[in-house]
Design goal:
The chain has 557 residues and is α+β, with helices and mostly antiparallel strands. The chain is 33% helix and 20% strand. The protein folds into 5 domains: 44 residues, no CATH class; 36 residues, no CATH class; 82 residues, Pdz3 Domain (Roll); 73 residues, Roll (SH3 type barrels); 196 residues, 3-Layer(aba) Sandwich (Rossmann fold). Helix 4 packs antiparallel against helix 5.
Length: 557
């Protein structure tokens, strides 16, 4: 009789079994039936497919990271920040080529998707009680060892709960039993009304072989993605239970919170990090309590207290600084301090039937963002447009109402201000100017991407699910001093008369970053108009075709 080798495939095994079938007087019909079944060509093909799938499963490559596109962008930005060698220029050209960008974008899309089978949705009339009572049978293989789990009775419900899973034990190795699961039966014997000690005795009886345990899984809170709004260094945190177990992160990092069982210390991983081990981070509640205590003790300024004016950042007209809470959507509660900890986020990509996202430019002193905005729009007016502002100044002969400005009376302008119709407004040479919410909506209704440049104070007004703004902070590259500037920087510094101007530019960028940096999606370092325009154009193009992290409240219906 032929002998099967260890590497024999299923289709080879099937062929061998078919050849070994011999007619038997007592079971002739059965043998003929089996031979016909095993000889079926479609079954042989199915076995070959199964074997190939198993082979692919063993050799399947896995992505090293899920954000190759953003990594390539960071590398390109780093290369552009200084002088480049011939090899670095070649690498930069390669990273900026549309073909490589497309390949990396496809890689990230595939790497971020889950290709596991998707179960059909539950029917609308499905009763939750039935779902809660579902029992999962778990087979635990034992080998003269304890099961590696302890149980307790829940005082509130009376249910027998898995209290602890011992690392390395049978329960832990299975990966199917978790702390909080309700124990319902052992080898078919109900344990609902048994005491924990009786159940333990029942489990001890089976010292070898396997044990079938019926459990009702704990309904676990799904892991959340949170964007960090502050920097955290565990080695500097004296309150952490274990500094070595802490997870360091920077503002803007996306954290996957895997458990919130501990109200003080969450466990999280950085999204895209190859390290599979989770680390400890302060919980939102704990971090807010710490910040509140520091504010009470005077070591932390009140985030709601008046801030230093940023009036030097835009000199075209004097902007109003009036607080306009509740004027058009989500706004923070003025009565409670807003501590920057975490914000739950999710991936969002604009769908074909949706209005384009709003693009908001903010800039520090010397950024000249209006010039940058106008240049990008002039290159492609069919895709991009500005929100036409309102003004009370008289119309000039060559101007058209609704093109350069919406010309209104002072009475109408004041009424619109009282009705909170402007995202910002101000005065210049005794005339009023303002950008309205309706002007933005008018651009988006034409399926164009609206680009606005505003004072940073207007960001909170625009951060709504309606606009889903993408915020770009533009700041010029400021040399350390006038004595150490390159020829490339001469055009930027030519108008500066004193070293104090450089310090003012640097300080305005720092101030905006400290107060509003957590609301910024991208920082654009402007060295010259041409390169800044090209970078902005690239950002706008990716915004239309790629997915980005946004607050989950913007997409939750």
């Amino acid at each position: 009789m032929p002998v099967l080798t260890a590497g024999a495939g299923l289709h080879e095994t099937l062929a061998l079994l078919t050849s070994q079938l011999r007619p038997d007087a007592n079971h002739k019909e059965d043998m003929v039936f089996l031979k016909d079944v095993f000889s079926e060509r479609s079954l042989g093909y199915l076995m070959k497919i199964h074997e190939k799938l198993r082979q692919y499963e063993r050799q399947s490559p896995t992505p090293v990271l899920h954000s190759a596109s953003s990594l390539a962008e960071d590398v390109a930005e780093e290369l552009q920040s200084g002088s480049m060698s011939t090899e670095e220029k070649e690498l930069l050209n390669l990273l900026l080529s549309p073909h490589l960008k497309a390949v990396l974008s496809v890689h990230d899309t595939v790497a971020q998707k889950n290709f596991d089978p998707v179960l059909p949705p539950l029917p609308d009339d499905f009763e939750d009680d039935l779902e809660e009572e579902s029992v999962k049978i778990v087979r635990l293989v034992k080998n003269k060892e304890p099961l590696g789990a302890t149980i307790r009775r829940d005082e509130a419900t009376g249910a027998v709960i898995v209290a602890r899973i011992m690392r390395g034990g049978a329960a832990d190795r299975s990966g199917l039993v978790h702390v909080g699961d309700e124990l319902r039966e052992v080898n078919g014997v109900s344990v609902i009304h048994k005491r924990p000690d009786e159940i333990s005795q029942l489990l001890v009886r089976w010292t070898e072989g396997h044990v079938d345990v019926g459990i009702t899984p704990l309904k676990k809170q799904p892991s959340e993605k949170q964007i960090a709004l502050f920097d955290y260094i565990p080695l500097e945190d004296k309150a952490t239970p274990c500094q070595e177990a802490g997870l360091p992160f920077k503002r803007g990092d996306i954290l996957q919170v895997v458990t919130q069982d501990d109200p003080t210390w969450w466990q999280a991983k950085r999204v895209g990090d190859s390290n599979l081990r989770a680390g400890l981070i302060p919980s939102k509640q704990f971090q807010e309590r710490r910040l509140a205590y520091r504010m009470k003790m005077g070591t932390l300024p009140n985030p709601k207290s008046p801030k230093k004016s940023l009036s030097g950042l835009r000199r075209s007209f004097r902007l109003s600084r009036k607080d306009r809470q509740g004027s058009s959507g989500e706004g923070s509660d003025p009565g409670e301090p807003e501590f920057l900890t975490y914000e739950e986020v999710t991936r969002y990509q604009q769908r074909p039937n949706e209005r384009p996202r709003l693009v908001v430019l903010i800039g520090s002193l010397g950024a000249r963002i209006n010039e940058l905005k106008q240049r990008v729009i002039a290159e492609n007016p069919h895709r991009y447009a500005v929100a036409v502002p309102h003004t009370t100044r008289p119309k000039k002969p060559h101007e058209k109402d609704g093109v350069e400005y919406h010309f209104v009376t002072k009475q109408q302008f004041d009424a619109d201000v009282l009705n909170n119709k402007f995202i910002e407004h101000g005065e210049y040479k005794e005339n009023q100017y303002g950008t309205s919410i309706e002007a933005i909506r008018s651009v988006q209704a034409k399926n164009k991407m609206c680009i606005v440049d505003v004072q940073p104070e207007a960001l909170k007004r625009l951060r709504t699910s309606e606009f889903k703004p993408y915020v770009i902070f533009v700041k010029p590259r400021v040399p350390e001093s006038r004595r150490r500037r390159s020829a490339k920087e001469n055009s930027l510094i030519a108008f500066l008369q004193q070293d104090e101007d450089l310090q003012e530019m640097r300080q305005s960028a720092i101030q905006i970053d400290q107060q509003y940096g957590h609301l910024v999606d991208r920082v654009l370092i402007k060295e010259d108009s041409a390169s800044a325009c090209a970078e902005l154009r690239g950002i706008l193009e990716r915004l239309e075709r790629e997915s980005f992290w946004v607050p989950i409240s913007w997409v939750r219906t």
